[in-house]
Design brief:
Oligomer: single chain
Number of strands: 2
Structural class: mainly alpha
Radius of gyration: 30 Å
Number of domains: 2
Order of helices and strands: HHEHHEH
Helix content: 55-70%
Strand content: under 5%
Strand order of the largest sheet: 1-2
Largest sheet: 2 strands, antiparallel
Number of helices: 5
Length: 152
Amino acid sequence: MRSNVFPRKSGQAWEWLAREVLESPSLGKGRMKMGVQRIANHAQRQQMSNSSFPTEFLLLLFPDTRQLKLLYFGLFLGIYLAALLGNGLILTAIACDHRLHTHMYFFLLNLSLIDLGTITTTVPKATANSLWDIRAISYAGCATQLFMFAVF
């Protein structure tokens, strides 16, 4: 006895189609196409209902107490400002003194530029999130931060 009800589980879809083909001796091309179309429509509906796209990512490593947040903010702000000052001094010294225009100092100039780029990509957002109790970052913000980190 044939069932005209399409099975709910995707693994049963091929069994249902095989039963339709085997039990119907007068199965024409039109009914075969209809059965295949039913499977395709069901697979598409199932795929659309099960798919998800993240809109934000949760950041769970920030502490809960306000004092620790302020301590982390001050610590990372100090490290960030020290890195900016140190790399800025290296860039200024190499750019202003013509005696430092050698291969070794050109390499140090590139290293300080890379350090400025990578630290400026991640640390300000992390410190702001910690200070203002933001526990999520948007997908676009995460993708932008990852792209900028990869560029530097």
